[in-house]
Amino acid sequence: MSYSQQTRRNRALSSVSTLLLSFLLCISKPSNAQSSSPVFACDVAGNPSLAGFGFCNTGLKAEARVTDLIGRLTLEEKIGFLVSNASGVSRLGIPYYNWWSEALHGVSSVGRGSDFSGLVRGATSFPQVILTAASFNISLFQAIGKVVSTEARAMHNVGQAGLTFWSPNVNIFRDPRWGRGQETPGEDPTLTSKYAVAYVKGLQETDGGDPNRLKVAACCKHYTAYDLDEWKDVSRFTFNAVVNQQDMYDTFQPPFKSCVVDGNVASVMCSYNKVNGKPTCADPDLLSGVIRGQWKLNGYIVSDCDSVEFMYTRQHYTNTPEEAVAKSMLAGLDLNCDHYAGQHAMEAVKTGLVNESAIDNALSNNFATLMRLGFFDGDPKNQPYGNLGPKDVCTAENQELAREAARQGIVLLKNSPGSLPFSPSAIKTLAVIGPNAHDVNQTMIGNYHGEPCKYTTPLQGLTQTVSATYSPGCSKVACTEADINSATALAASADAVVLVMGLDQTIEREDLDRVNLNLPGKQQELVTEVARAAKGPVVLVIMSGGGFDITFAKNDEKITSIMWVGYPGEAGGLAIADVIFGRHNPSGRLPMTWYPQTYVEKVPMSNMNMRPDEANGYPGRTHRFYAGETVYAFGDGISYSKFSHRLVKATRHLSLRLDESHVCQSSECQSLDAVGPHCESVVEVHVEVSNVGDREGSHTVLMFTSPPAVHRSPIKNLVGFEKVGLGKSEEVTVRFKVDVCKDLSVVDETGKMKVALGEHVLHVGSLKHSLTISI
Ligand SMILES: *[C@@H]1O[C@H](CO)[C@@H](O)[C@H](O)[C@H]1NC(C)=O
Ligand SMILES: *[C@@H]1O[C@H](CO)[C@@H](O)[C@H](O)[C@H]1NC(C)=O
Ligand SMILES: *[C@@H]1O[C@H](CO)[C@@H](O)[C@H](O)[C@H]1NC(C)=O
Ligand SMILES: *[C@@H]1O[C@H](CO)[C@@H](O)[C@H](O)[C@H]1NC(C)=O
Fold first, then answer.
1. Residue to substitute in 139, 700, 726 for testing ligand 4 pocket (most ligand atoms within 8 angstroms of CB)
2. Given 183, 210, 349, 721, which residue has the most CB atoms within 10 angstroms?
């Protein structure tokens, strides 16, 4: 019903907007648009000769349309569709198309498919993903994805964005030094998987819910075991990640599997690095075998940009460029970001390294995705979402969601009695100090950003409530020089101090990993001196992707509160002020472990092993395997209120039903394969959560399980989580349905999922419950 209304509205607009669209394409992409290139594919109304083409016929099945299109292309034309800046075919009315757009936390200007040079000058910039993940709120993840895809479609309609977005990044934040950890949902496979599925759905799902259509196409990257950029002399472009099968299927693969199987993502991007000696983009087991074979990807596999070229030029994995192109295509790669396949596929075919049928196969995956996006359905203005335009970008509502996301993610790590929240009647003057307090527009939006609608810095946010004095303390976050005297003078004369410290992209970014976990340069000295001089409460706000060793601040009584704000996005300053003045009760929880500095001194970033090794003192990684001291732990985060948990229902003994012939009927087994009739068992765990504090707030119930110690199992697994909002003295029962094979299984040494028999200890906060699984 709403479709037909949209169509009527759009027809009236379409002639004007088509003109506008061609005008914009002419001014914004002069180098890309050949003068004869059509503006959109299958413009049957403007070019009646296209009407007879099967691929333009919306009445046919997508598969038939794809076959028709491939049948019309010469080999040379086909090769033009193997690369991200696909050349288009004017004689068939198909325009140039750039596949590379990004939308990590808002429509981005990274990639050549989207830009902010036309009618749309900015798009809503949400917090960097690591902070959004800290909200542990799945509906928020999806709501953000939905706003981003709406803004993306709106920009597409005026020629400023593509339809294929290479987001999200679902790699595991394995090591705190990783410069791109900020882009990810953190270190835990369960959280990362849930984030991935929700964000992908938000991007892709159409309002009608038709699985054959995509609002925009998402892409889960970077497949796989990619989480090192540039550390000491190790580069992601040549790094060989040595990963055992257990870690592979226990840690690195699950988010990708969820993306494809549960999120129905339209694309997966393979990474730069090698895994166990093979470049991921040339590994038939990882691509054709797992992604397409086992997980049944409905979409295309794309390479990271230049990774095919690097197989030859940097990794020396192949002897010729043609061989790199052929090997990757034969492994299952469909699209090459950048031009290498375009330059070398012809020669690869001529020399018999790859057949045209392999190219057809790749194209069919690429075209099928474009079909689902409506790329071959004519004027985008006459399609669903065709009515979206500049008015739908940066709306008040969208910007409010950016502020809400930042508020929900902010993690309060320390709060001494009498510190936060500040009451504006008691705190009349504030000293705001630190290199991330103001002039941090770029810092707040992290990487893979676009042009935000507008920015509000922490200083601007705070001064909307109280008057403040301000000193950056150091001119850059590197803080090689600090102006400690002016900062302490401000601190001494204000009712309270807010220090905004941390990192920016000069210290942690793509292509740059950290080497230590301390605050850079003289930041620690500045913080300590300011706290010493302050007469009132001192709040240390850390803006960063990765965690720190801030033991000094944790132990400093003069520092009364500590808060981590990630890179909080365009509305970051408003959100920080909302939390500081108690207009929002913080509920974020750390999505990654904060290790002590000694950790990185002991552990080479290039060691991929997740599990500890007692033989050589290797401590293991993440909350699932690392049992050593932490500065702050995964899941840490406090509220202005207090919440208590009570177990109201939980299974104690579970006896699994096995086939008569099952080998474990006659012999002793430690675990069972996580397939078969016994997998139908579901355990119910009901936890009552009460808000026993004096203000309303949200609380995340994190349910962990410690499995029996077989197969070198993790210390604990995050089984699931649920965020609930509770008024003062309110209580609610959270019901977890725990699937024995999916949620209680562990991965064995060969990478297979197993249900361990014996005692599983479920825990929620300090609550513990023992569940015994037997046969
Ligand atoms: C795609 O990019 C490559 C390398 O920059 C260039 O040689 C080629 O002409 C481009 N193709 C199109 C269709 O723009
Ligand atoms: C190409 O096709 C021929 C004939 O079907 C087949 O024998 C050959 O193995 C194929 N080559 C490659 C590289 O797939
Ligand atoms: C930061 O953003 C604000 C608001 O959008 C703008 O007024 C200001 O000029 C920007 N500052 C810098 C240094 O770009
Ligand atoms: C989760 O996020 C949504 C969207 O912002 C919000 O409406 C909801 O209140 C949040 N849930 C909790 C429990 O905070």
1. 139
2. 183
Reduce the DSSP state of residue 303 to 3 states and report it: strand
Q: How close is the Cα of 54 to the center of ligand 1, in Å?
A: 28
Q: Are 558 and 425 members of one domain?
A: yes
Helix axis angle, 484-492 to 523-533, nearest 10°: 30
Quote the ligand 3 centre to 452 CA distance (angstroms): 10
- Going from the C-alpha of 120 to that of each of 45, 153, 399, 646, the distances in angstroms are 27, 12, 15, 51
Same domain, residue pair 430 and 530: yes
User: How far, in Å, CA of 174 to CA of 228, rounded?
Assistant: 9
Question: Is the shortest distance between the CB of 725 and ligand 4 below 6 Å?
Answer: yes
Structure tokens at 756: 């361990």
Closest ligand to residue 459's CA = 3
Active-site position among 115, 304, 379, 636: 304
| Beta pairing class for 697-706 and 653-655 | unpaired
pLDDT score recorded for residue 144? 99
Cα(356) to ligand 2 centroid in Å equals 9
Is residue 303 included in any domain, yes or no? no
Q: Is residue 309 part of a domain?
A: no
Q: What is the CATH number of the domain that holds 734?
A: 2.60.40.10
Residue nearest atom 3 of ligand 3, based on CA coordinates? 455
pLDDT in tens, 525-563: 999 999 999 999 999 999 999 999 999 999 999 999 999
Ligand 2 atom at shortest distance from the alpha carbon of 354: 13
Give SS3 for 425.
Answer: coil
Residue 593 and residue 649 share a domain: no
- The reply to whether ligand 4 has any atom less than 6 angstroms from the CB of 137 is yes
Give the whole-angstrom CA distance, residue 128 versus residue 209. 28
Give the domain-ending residue among 572, 602, 632: 602
pLDDT tens-digit map of 307-322: 999 999 999 999 999 9
620-667 confidence digits (pLDDT tens): 999 999 999 999 999 999 999 999 999 999 999 999 988 888 899 888
Distance in angstroms (rounded) separating the CA atoms of residues 171 and 257: 12
Measure the CA–CA gap between 153 and 210, rounded to whole angstroms: 17
Quick one: 431 and 562 in the same domain?
yes
Q: Which of 85, 94, 100, 338 has most ligand 1 atoms within 8 Å of CB, for mutation?
A: 85
Ligand 1 neighbours, Cβ below 6 Å, are: 32, 85, 87, 96, 339
The number of beta carbons lying within 10 Å of the beta carbon of residue 770 is 12
Q: Residue 613 is encoded by which pair of tokens? A: 């090794």
Domain membership of residue 30 (yes or no) is no
Note down the domain range covering 542.
399-602
Q: How far is CA 402 from CA 136, 454, 752, in A?
A: 15, 11, 40
* Positive/negative CA dihedral, 275, 278, 279, 280: negative
Q: Which of 451, 455, 460, 574 to mutate to test the pocket of ligand 3 (most atoms within 8 A of CB)?
A: 455
Measured from the alpha carbon of residue 323, the closest ligand is 2
Cα–Cα nearest to 90, from 101, 105, 77? 77
Give yes or no for residue 460 CB within 6 A of ligand 3. no
Peptide bond into 222 cis (omega under 30): yes
**CA 32 to ligand 1: nearest atom:** 14
- According to DSSP, the β-strands at 653-655 and 767-774 are parallel
613 is catalytic: no
**Ligand 4 closest atom vs CA 587:** 14
- In this prediction, residue 7 carries a pLDDT of 29
Total domains in the chain come to 2
Residue of minimum CA distance from atom 14 in ligand 3: 441
Cα 430 to Cα 39, 418, 459, 494, 540: the distances in Å are 55, 16, 10, 5, 13
Domain final residue, candidates 571, 602, 633: 602
Instruction: Give domain status of residue 615, yes or no.
Output: no
